[in-house]
Structure formats: C-alpha cells, structure tokens
Amino acid sequence: MTGRSILVVDDEAPMRMLIRSFLEKEGYRVSEAPNGIDALNLVSAKSFDLILLDVMMPFMDGYAFTKELKQKDDIPIIFLSAKGEEWDKIKGLKMGADDYIVKPFHSGELLARIETVLRRAFPLNHKKNIIKAGPIRLDLNAHRTFLDQEEISLTLKELNILSLLIQCENTVLSRNRLMESVWGAEYSGTERTVDTHIKTLRIKLKKHGELIKTVWGIGYKFEV
C-alpha cells in the first residue's frame, strides 16, 4: 500500500509531525492540515487516498468536516480522537468514517488500521479513476479533463502524460520514462515527441500550463 497519499488533520502540530514521520518511513505521501477548513481546501486542490482526522479542532471540528466532505467526495476516513466513549465511536462511524481510533495509540496499531482501510477501499487491480490537482480534474475512465470546472479537450496521449505527471507530483520524470510509460517501450520515436506533446498540453492548460515545470537536461515535473 505504500505510495498512497494521506491527509493528517489535527490541531496539535506535534501529533501531526509524529504521524507524518512514521508514515513517511513506511512510504506514504503525507500532507497536513490544522483544522477542517484548511483540510477542505486541500481536498479540493489535491487527490487523497485516506484522511486521518481528529475530532476536537477549532474553526471546524472533525464531525462537521466529515459531513461537509461526504456531500461531494468519498475519501476513506479514520478518526483519531481522545473522545473514547462508545457513543463517540458510534457517531463517527455513522457519519461515514471507516474506523475510529482512541488516543493515545501505538503506531503499529494505526499502521495496521490504515492498511486495512486502504485494502478495503482499493482492492487489488482497482485503479483510482478521478485525479485532482489544483484546478485540474481528470476522469480517467471517461477520458475527460476539467480545468477550473470547465471541460477541455485532450488527446489520449496528452491525458496520459498529464495523469502520470500529476500522480508523480514534485518528482522529475525523464523524457525517456514518459515516452516508455505513455507510448510503450517498443516505440521507436525520439524524445522530442514528448517535448511536442508537453508544449501542446501547456497551451491547452492556459495559465495553468506553468504547473508543468521543465527540468533542463532531464525532463519534466508537475508542481502545484
């Protein structure tokens, strides 16, 4: 399950840092938010596979966040809370959470619960079909691309390039890797083919084309 993206929402910075530290050692990509409002903003801009959510937070608590999120997204949620009464757990699960862990907890227990929820949410051979990054949303099943909520037309190759760049956000991908991933290892064209498609892709993304960064002498990366 490593490589999955997890959002940690907790108003206590030391707790966020602790969770982030051991999850990153396990290979997960981790983002943080100190409250529900900031978390909603992150969810609208990026794609997450799981949310670890505190209950008692300022501005917007975990319950209010869950209610708001479930109206538009179905990202798995694990509550992490000091509220350990039975009715607290029942309330969280009834609101749509996938699990409820009482603080303090052992890192091994949290990791096991995370793996269980992710296995349930993403069975083997299941591909996540909606990818979001900043103003861009890709529907891989329908081969549709939305920019600032308006649909734009991309060729299948352009869609595959953009999808790969977004899923490897902040990672430099060489022209050769892009070519092998999108065109296949047996493709006999030159790496300039990648440059041509990137140029067209940037034009179609308008002002957001700058999210695709050129790394001179190597290739490209996507950076929000």
TrEMBL record:
* 4-aspartylphosphate: residues carrying this PTM: 54
- Which segments constitute the Response regulatory domain? 5-118
Question: What keywords tag this UniProt record?
Answer: Activator, Cytoplasm, DNA-binding, Phosphoprotein, Transcription, Transcription regulation, Two-component regulatory system
Q: Which residues bind DNA?
A: 128-224
SMART domains, A to Z: REC (SM00448), Trans_reg_C (SM00862)
Pinpoint the OmpR/PhoB-type domain residues: 128-224
Q: What is its main location?
A: cytoplasm
Name the record gives this protein: Transcriptional regulator
Q: What organism is listed for this UniProt entry?
A: Jeotgalibacillus soli
High-level lineage: Bacteria, Bacillati, Bacillota, Bacilli, Bacillales
